[in-house]
Design a protein that fits this description.
The structure holds 2 protein chains of 2 kinds. Chain A is mostly helical. Chain A has 6 helices and no strands. Helix content of chain A is 74%, strand content 0%. Chain A starts with a helix and ends in a 7-residue tail after the last helix. By secondary structure, chain B is an alpha+beta fold. Chain B folds into 2 domains: 117 residues, Thrombin, subunit H (Beta Barrel), CATH 2.40.10; 76 residues, Rod shape-determining protein MreC, domain 2 (Thrombin, subunit H, Beta Barrel). The relative contact order of chain B is 0.13. Classes of the chains: A mainly alpha, B alpha+beta. At the A-B interface, α1, α3 and α4 of A face α1 and α2 of B.
């Protein structure tokens, strides 16, 4: 749990200086690993923080992030979500949409980097939590 | 099914809360929450200052050794350097004849999002001044007589500056010889829509043409945008365009000046 809190704090700090949406990767990992409802409230908190530092209308990013988490949860029944492929694709698409909504540059390369880092942290957390590796 | 219902209710609760906050925020009823900006500014300022040192990462091993030796001295020097930098910035700006120092408000940069921090050039800044300091949307931001950008978002304590290299940035400008065009931001600055009959040369200065509204808010004339580095002139086109290079190094700025009116 400490590792996850630390990861969230690092994401918050990094969000202020880079346009790469690490927050999407963080939410994807937490959604697929824990499958808990508190991830929605985490999305709300992270979104409000990002709105504050980016001077956006409060609640805008939270809504986008909450819909993103909701879509991942919807796919739980159709796909095996705890796989590298799913984390990569969902982080990539999520980042792409996020960057396009908020009007950033180099959306493809940034989404790709976000997805790669998301997968690395997913693998790291998977090992850290001592989960079975068959599904990966 | 029970678990599914659980996440659905959580989603609807968060989505509903977000929409309520968004509506209240857009209608300006959440201004009392501006006190929340202070802790977030602190976090942002911390990360910005940390990554300002990134260009020196390649020397990290040597610097780390030196840092250990000089740790005590550095804390004192840091305070002194900050004061010195601030003094130099103010002194530089006040020596500038145009724009007059009385029209300017100094603001510290506390955030600059870029693709790769410390390597790629940012296209927006967050400054530590906002509505409380009488800033308004559309106000021009300068450093010496160089045009830096325009305030694009504003809250009680903070403001976002869209730099001239921002893809959404667009303003009228003129060359030293009076050729008028539109400067657009992107990875490289370009001045477009210059008539083919106009004679523009490499090395020529590009200045703002001026675009100030009735309230005195906007871009003042004759601020330096940059110099022309290449010209693209095709007789079959209606207009010619040129690449412009700004004299400002956006990565090394720590403070800017907002042109009040």
């Amino acid at each position: 749990m400490i590792f996850i809190i630390l990861l969230t704090l690092i994401t918050l700090i990094i969000s202020g200086i880079t346009t790469i949406p690490f927050v999407i990767g963080l939410l994807t990992i937490q959604t697929v690993l824990f499958k808990k409802s508190w991830v929605f409230f985490l999305a709300l908190g992270l979104g409000l923080f990002l709105d504050l530092i980016m001077i956006r209308p409060l609640g805008y990013t939270s809504l986008v992030l909450a819909i993103f988490v909701f879509l991942i949860r919807l796919y739980e029944r159709k796909f095996e979500t705890q796989t590298i492929a799913f984390v990569f694709i969902s982080t990539f698409l999520g980042s792409l949409i996020y960057l396009m909504i908020f009007g950033y540059n180099n959306v493809l390369i940034q989404s790709l980097i976000s997805a790669i880092i998301g997968v690395l942290f997913f693998k790291l957390l998977w090992l850290k939590l001592g989960l079975h590796s068959e599904t990966i | 099914m029970k678990r599914r219902e659980g996440f659905l209710s959580a989603f609807f609760a968060v989505a509903f809360l977000s929409i309520i906050i968004l509506v209240l925020s857009l209608s300006g009823k959440l201004k009392f929450l501006s006190f929340l900006e202070k802790p977030t500014v602190a976090i942002q300022g911390l990360s910005y200052n940390l990554f300002q040192k990134l260009p020196f990462v390649s020397e990290s091993a040597r610097i780390k050794r030196l840092e250990d030796e000089n740790l005590k001295l550095l804390s004192r020097v840091a305070d002194f350097e900050k004061l010195k930098q601030e003094n130099a910035a103010l002194s530089d700006q006040f020596q500038t004849v145009y724009p007059r120092s009385t029209q300017l408000l100094k603001a510290d940069i506390i955030g600059a999002q870029s693709f790769i921090p410390g390597i790629s050039v940012p296209n927006s800044f967050i400054i530590n001044k906002g509505l409380k300091n009488n800033l308004k949307m559309g106000m021009a931001v300068v450093i010496k007589e160089n045009f830096v950008g325009v305030i694009s978002q504003i809250s009680e304590n903070l403001a976002q500056i869209n730099l001239i290299n921002n893809p959404s940035s667009s303003f009228t400008a003129k060359t030293e010889n009076g050729a008028v065009g539109i400067v657009k931001g992107a990875n490289t600055l370009t001045i477009n829509n210059i008539l083919l009959s106009e004679n523009i040369k490499i090395g020529e200065l590009v200045l703002t043409k001026g675009d100030i509204n009735n309230n005195g808010v906007g871009i003042p004339p004759d601020l330096i945008v940059g110099k022309i580095t290449s010209v693209e002139k095709n007789p079959s086109n209606l207009f010619q365009k040129a690449k412009v290079e700004s004299f400002v190094n956006f990565m090394n700025l720590s403070a800017v000046f907002v042109y009040l009116q």
